[in-house]
Amino acid sequence: MTAVRICPRTDMQCGTPSICNPFGGCLPPAIKAVENEAAEQRDEILVRLEQVVALLRTIAVPQDDALWNSQQIADWLGLSKVSVELRVVSRDNFPKPLRAVDTKQAQRRWFRSDVIEWGRANAGSVPAPRRGRPRKSTSI
User: 111: which DSSP letter?
Assistant: First the structure.
């Protein structure tokens, strides 16, 4: 037999503990049913989202077709973005950039495979990263 509880807020008897709100106040059975239905829908949505994420992970862009911007080239070469833009991509033998639209303001991008091929062919001529400016020694 289920113990009858008295709700401290409403002074109503609550015979079903699962309906009783732990923070005080009894919930009508209809509200509890709506909450249960919402929880089931939330769980179903989460399962479907996990399926979508799993599917998206299987659909990958082939690495040869991936496009790199100057920051990604800089990361790969171990240089700063400014160095890449001034001293690497401006070379005559560097692969030609691809622009989504034909304007000078459009960000340039290069095919990853072309950049790696160029880097391997020009390994000795790629500028080395510069050390930082020497610090002044302070003598006390």
Answer: E
- pLDDT band (50, 70, 90) for residue 104: confident
C-alpha closest to that of 19 among 7, 11, 9? 7
Tens-digit pLDDT profile for residues 57-68: 887 666 667 899
Name the residue among 97, 100, 72 with its Cα closest to residue 84: 72
Q: What is the pLDDT of residues 12-22, one digit of tens each?
A: 555 555 455 55
CA distance 110 to 73: 9
Structural contact between residues 52 and 100, judged by C-beta atoms closer than 8 angstroms: no
Q: What are phi and psi of 109, to 5 degrees?
A: -140, 150
List the chain domain ranges.
5-58, 63-121
